[in-house]
Amino acid sequence: MSKDTILGLNCSGFNSSCAFVREGKVLFAVEEERMIRQKRTRLFPKSGIQYGFKKLGLELEDLECIAIGWNPAINLEAFNGAHANNLRFLGELFCSAPLNLMSLQDRESGLHSSQCLALDNGKEIKIHYVNHHLCHASSFYLSPFEDASILTVDAFGEKQCCTFSEAKNSSIEQIWSQEFPHSLGAFYSTMTEFLGFRAQSDEWKLMGASSFGDPSRFLPKLREVFHLEKDGGFELDLRYFNFYQFHRPRRYTAKLEKLLEIEPLSSGLPLQQEHYDLAAAAQLVFEEIYLHLISSLQKKANGQNLILSGGSALNSVANGKVLRESGFSELFVPPVPDDSGISVGAALYVQNMILAKGSRVSMSNNYWGPEFSSDKIEKELHNYKISHKKTDSIESDVARLIADGKIVGWFQGALEFGDRALGNRSILADPRDPEMKDKVNKTIKYRENFRPFAPSVLSERASEFFTDLVETPYMEKVLKIKDSLREILPAVTHVDGSCRLHTVEKSINPKFHKLISCFEEITQVPVLLNTSFNTNGEAMVCSPRDAIRTFYSSGLDVLAIGDFIIQKEAPIS
Q1: Rounded distance, CA 533 to CA 539, Å?
Q2: What is the DSSP string of 462-511?
Q3: Is-contact 68 11, C-beta < 8 A?
Q4: Whole-angstrom distance between the N-terminal and C-terminal Cα of the chain?
Q5: pLDDT tens, residue by residue, 191-230
Q6: Of the candidates 402, 164, 175, which has an alpha carbon nearest to the alpha carbon of residue 294?
Q7: Sign of the CA dihedral running 427, 571, 563, 545
Q8: What is the pLDDT of residues 297-327, one digit of tens each?
Q9: CA-based angle 221:226:227, to the nearest 5?
Q10: CA angle (265, 270, 271) in 5-degree steps
Q11: List of residues 6+ apart from 232 with CB closer than 8 A
Q12: What is the pLDDT of residue 1?
């Protein structure tokens, strides 16, 4: 069986990751940041690979091949003599020889390229380098669809920043693309930076802040910086932007400041109302372009199934409007549409499109990361001499603690792959407490008070609480809470009545489903406040050690880790 295993890698930028795929099924996948505790690391995912090898009983020579979600041949299309002829060390022959050879022909590169590593035991391992956006599009192989239209949108791949594709059975065909710098992802990152946040990191903050603003002041101005094209794409007026000049210190020019008639906010300063208004306008511009691309895709492709991928598909506010405002009837957004998921996409693309070994297994969950036995957890607790209680009823015991106002770190099963905490590495609290949102933001997450939290709801009860309900198992869409029920759920109701919903299926996560059910038995509310188990600036916890450290360095009241409950002693009055 091991000979059919493909190792997929994202190792060309932020959020490096690895994934092991066999016969269409993801066996293990993890972001390197979780392993080495460096948020959004660019480092090669060595720790994750080593963990995967050990977990699966594999070595490098056991792999069928390796798939990398970036095609460097595209970056070699323009000859660079300095790189081609001045080797810093002889290992760069892997680059210089192809660069010189490609200069002998005047054609663009294909969709993928490859190398071969020959080991001293005679084993050869092929490394396939796959077009970045094709790896995003390969989310199709995780979807429940037999055929689909696919939109990928991000800051940029090798040179593309948006693609349309059609998929059927085991085949994906790219039918249209738009090249950098006319990038929707780069536009949104520019506005993120303008508002004093970290671009390519804090876009969540812009999205959260947008609900507090009135877009009318800035929307007409921002509409001057782009133009929608009839063929389906759009163009940015590059006079307002610097992001495509990578050596420049800012992503925007003075012309954008003059247009908006507002100074960029310095990092760390609090937002004023004008900044919330600008965030609201930037979000609306994003949605206008996003929905234009979706509409254009539908005109070029056939079918009613839509897949959204690429970093821009993390915009859950926009995702929540897609089915309502487009002609598509079904939507799939993977739990890891950003570059973290490129490792999975690369492996699935190679399996289906290069090796022609189509074997699709639609995903049921993304609990693909490290998992720790009860014995390992207890050993860690003993190592730190931590007082703990073992229980045979972790769900009911923790439900009672949450109902009593305790904030709980919930550590169970295998780590989620992706940015959303889906009930295995979560911080949980009572959504009925109107002070709980501010309390969690201030004393645990250490982040801005305008940041919202998600409700995790029993899937079978969700229609009672949320309007225009569609299943959101990966917390990928923002929907509205029914007006009459917002007072019941103040801690998870955003200022505009919205929420980033998480519907919990018993068949997918029975332990988390039972916890919410126990909470409902106590409170008659089948909903919990759910946010990722980490503090601001840190990666989501991976190991018991990570959970213990975060528990004691934050305002958490309880740690429920495996079958064990740890509570902090009450402070001396």
Answers
A1: 9
A2: GGGTEET----TTS--EEEEPGGGTTT-GGG--TTSEEE-EEE-TTT-HH
A3: yes
A4: 61
A5: 999 999 999 999 999 999 999 999 999 999 999 999 999 8
A6: 164
A7: positive
A8: 999 998 899 999 999 999 999 999 999 999 9
A9: 120
A10: 65
A11: 164, 176, 292, 293, 296, 297, 299, 300
A12: 43
Rounded Cα–Cα distance for residues 525 and 248 (Å): 52
493: tokens are: 């109701």
The DSSP 8-state label assigned to residue 141 in this structure reads G
Scanning 57-183, the segments in alpha helix (DSSP H) are 72-75, 81-85, 93-102, 132-137
In whole angstroms, give the CA distance from residue 560 to residue 562.
6
DSSP 8-class letter at 70: -
The DSSP 8-state label assigned to residue 350 in this structure reads: I
329-369 pLDDT, tens per residue?
A: 999 999 999 999 999 999 999 999 999 998 888 899 999 99
Please enumerate in sequence order all residues whose Cβ is within 8 A of that of 498, keeping only pairs 6 or more positions apart, or say none.
Answer: 211, 317, 320, 452, 478, 479, 480, 481
Q: Does pTM surpass 0.90?
A: yes
d(CA 568, CA 549) in angstroms, rounded, equals 13
How far is 161 from 188, CA to CA, in rounded Å? 13
Handedness of CA 536, 539, 541, 546 (dihedral sign): negative
For the chain, domains (ranges, CATH) are: 2-71+110-143+341-354 (3.30.420.40), 160-333 (3.30.420.40), 374-567 (3.90.870.20)
Q: Within the chain, which residues score under 70 in pLDDT?
A: 1-2, 570-573
Instruction: Provide the pLDDT for residue 573.
Output: 37
Tokens, residue 208: 């959260």
Amino acid identity, position 209: A
- In angstroms, rounded to a whole number, what is the distance separating the alpha carbons of residues 298 and 305? 10
Structure token pair of residue 315: 């915009």
SS3 118: strand
Q: How far is residue 251's CA from residue 236's CA, in Å, rounded to a whole number?
A: 13
Q: Whose CA is closest to 201, among 338, 104, 295?
A: 338
Q: How far is CA 39 from the centre of its chain?
A: 13
Task: Please state, in angstroms and rounded to a whole number, the distance separating the CA atoms of residues 573 and 565.
Answer: 24
| Pairing state between β 408-411 and 558-561 | parallel
For residue range 397-406, list pLDDT tens digits in order: 999 999 999 9
Residues 456, 444: Cα–Cα separation, whole Å: 19
Report residue 308 as tokens: 């959204």
Q: Which two tokens stand for residue 461?
A: 């009860």
| Alpha-helix runs per DSSP H in 301-425 | 316-325, 342-349, 374-383, 394-403
3-state secondary structure 424-461: CEEEEECCCCCCHHHHHHHHHHCCCCCCCCEEEEEHHH
Q: Which residue is listed with tokens 């995790």?
A: 456
Residue 538: name the closest of 527, 530, 549 by CA. Answer: 549
pLDDT of residue 2: 59
